[in-house]
Design brief:
- The protein is an all-alpha fold and 497 residues long.
- Helix content is 69%, strand content 1%.
- The protein is built from 23 helices and 2 strands.
- The chain has a two-stranded antiparallel ribbon with strand order 1-2.
- The longest helix is centred in the C-terminal third of the chain and has 32 residues, at 370-401.
- The chain is globular, with a radius of gyration of 23 Å.
């Protein structure tokens, strides 16, 4: 077999992992965020100042070591010890948080009950969408890690995309990426259509040209270079950039006709009808059958074409969640209630998922069927909830310690506004890797794809030892993060439209 055939076989015919293991991974990123925040809080208490010395380098290294390194290790050499890693981080973070809480409670002389009660009643302010920005950033980061790591033997095969049925970590990544894009789209932000609906639809058609260009660029480069492809993902000519473009246009057309406040009804109708067609016609057999690719464009790209229905459903569901999250709230207890409702929504959808898997069929990313959509939205809501709780823990630590400079979604409300403090916070965020990726998300995703292709052309990914594979993956992520970090530090936003 050629090297290309070996790589294609290496990422084919896989069955995924359990829903529980994918859910377990949702705890790691929030714990990393809490750890980074507590480290900065302890440094501020010890030295009385932030940022760190040599901020451009020191904050990049800190963020990389605390936010990126654990994610890389968790899907490579520590994948079989994920429970222990999460429990260890949770225990250490809990101990540090208790230390900060008790130290500052004794210093201030306030009763501990009053501290918690005052926190729940307190008001907050924010410059970015609470926990939504972090969700979108880490979906992007985890995607960047996985698209290269999957080509190395150090990456567990159960985490890779499944062939037809199953739940791999990378399967969730695809659905989560679509969901993340929907959270901040114009419809989710409540922007009204200006002018006629026809003009709005034309505008949306024109706005996706960067995705179409990127899709064409990827198609041409793959065919010219002979780069390995997993045909049953999207087809022979289709790729994820085309899916993103089609989903954006179709969803905009539907939401121009129907009210965004009832987006969940549209999503249910689309996926319900699509699943009904899968079950009552020969469409499911047509999509899964893999020996007729040469007959037509539709036969060649049937996964990409028909899975669009599922991704449109996930996108529209994301619009509904975005509308809910962006409702005005100012008190901590209001945000805690919102987090509880997100968790409750995740629980209800997971219950529906288990029912569907028992009565209908298992999760299939290839078909983008009803169970896949339920799983993608349910797990996205659960991950968002975990990130929101982490942000709330950081807010509590900031309020308790008096260190308001730690990067997080929320800041304690200041009255009157403090321009000096705001300037210091802005200076800290200028060195924050989360803010850097959030500023240029599409560029980060594109850079990761280009770097993945370059790495595969230089390195024999199948023949690498575990240690060398880890060095390559960490170097690849460090380059991606450094480029994005420098751009953010210089105040550069790369727009494709």
């Amino acid at each position: 077999m050629s090297q290309r055939d070996l790589k294609e076989a290496f990422i084919s015919n896989l069955n995924g992992t359990t829903l529980q293991e994918v859910g377990l991974g949702s705890f790691l990123t929030p714990l990393c965020l809490i750890s980074r925040g507590l480290i900065l809080t302890l440094y501020h208490q010890a030295r009385g100042t932030l940022p760190l010395p040599l901020p451009l380098i020191s904050h990049l290294l800190l963020d990389f070591c605390v936010l990126i390194l654990p994610l890389v290790l968790s899907c490579t050499i520590l994948s079989d010890a994920l429970h222990q890693v999460i429990l260890g981080l949770a225990f250490i973070s809990g101990c540090v948080l208790c230390y900060i809480y008790h130290t500052n409670s004794h210093c201030s002389g306030r009763p501990q009950q009053n501290t918690v009660s005052n926190f729940l009643q307190s008001h907050v302010q924010f410059n970015q969408l609470p926990f939504v920005t972090i969700f979108r950033v880490f979906v992007n980061v985890k995607t960047a890690i996985s698209i290269l790591a999957v080509d190395f033997s150090i990456f567990p095969r159960r985490y890779a995309k499944t062939e037809t049925y199953g739940t791999g970590v990378m399967d969730f990544g695809v659905g989560a990426y679509v969901f993340a894009n929907a959270l901040v789209c114009p419809e989710a932000r409540g922007k009204n259509i200006s002018g006629s609906k026809v003009n709005h639809i034309v505008k949306q058609l024109l706005s996706v040209w960067p995705l179409v260009v990127l899709g064409m660029g990827r198609l041409v480069s793959l065919k010219i270079s002979g780069y390995h492809e997993h045909v049953t993902e999207y087809g022979i000519h289709w790729n994820f950039f085309f899916t993103l473009a089609i989903v954006r246009v179709v969803a905009s057309m539907l939401l121009a006709v129907f009210p965004a406040s009832r987006a969940w009804v549209i999503a249910l109708l689309i996926i319900g009808f699509y699943q009904l067609v899968l079950e009552t016609s020969g469409l499911k057999t047509f999509i899964i059958h893999n020996e007729d690719r040469e007959l037509s464009f539709l036969h060649a790209n049937k996964e990409g074409v028909f899975s669009t229905a599922g991704y449109v459903t996930i996108y529209i569901a994301g619009v509904q969640v975005g509308l809910y999250v962006m409702q005005p709230r100012s008190q901590v207890k209001q945000w805690l209630k919102a987090l509880f409702n997100l968790f409750w929504g995740s629980f209800v959808l997971y219950t529906a998922l288990f029912t569907c898997q028992t009565l209908v069929e298992p999760v299939s990313r290839r078909l983008a069927n009803l169970p896949f959509c339920l799983w993608s939205v349910a797990q996205s809501l659960f991950f968002m909830t975990c990130l929101g709780v982490a942000d709330m823990v950081l807010l509590f630590a900031k309020r308790t310690s008096g260190c308001h400079l730690v990067p997080s979604s929320w800041n304690p409300h200041k009255k009157p506004p403090d321009s000096i403090s705001d300037k210091k916070i802005s200076n800290i965020e200028r060195h924050c890797l989360v803010q850097a990726v959030g500023r240029n998300q599409l560029l980060f995703f594109l850079l990761a794809n280009v770097m993945t292709g370059l790495t595969n052309s230089i390195v024999d990914t199948l023949g690498c030892s575990s240690s060398f594979s880890l060095v390559v993956l960490l170097s690849y992520m460090f380059v991606n993060c450094s480029v994005i970090g420098v751009l953010h530090n210089c105040g550069i936003t790369v727009k494709f439209w």
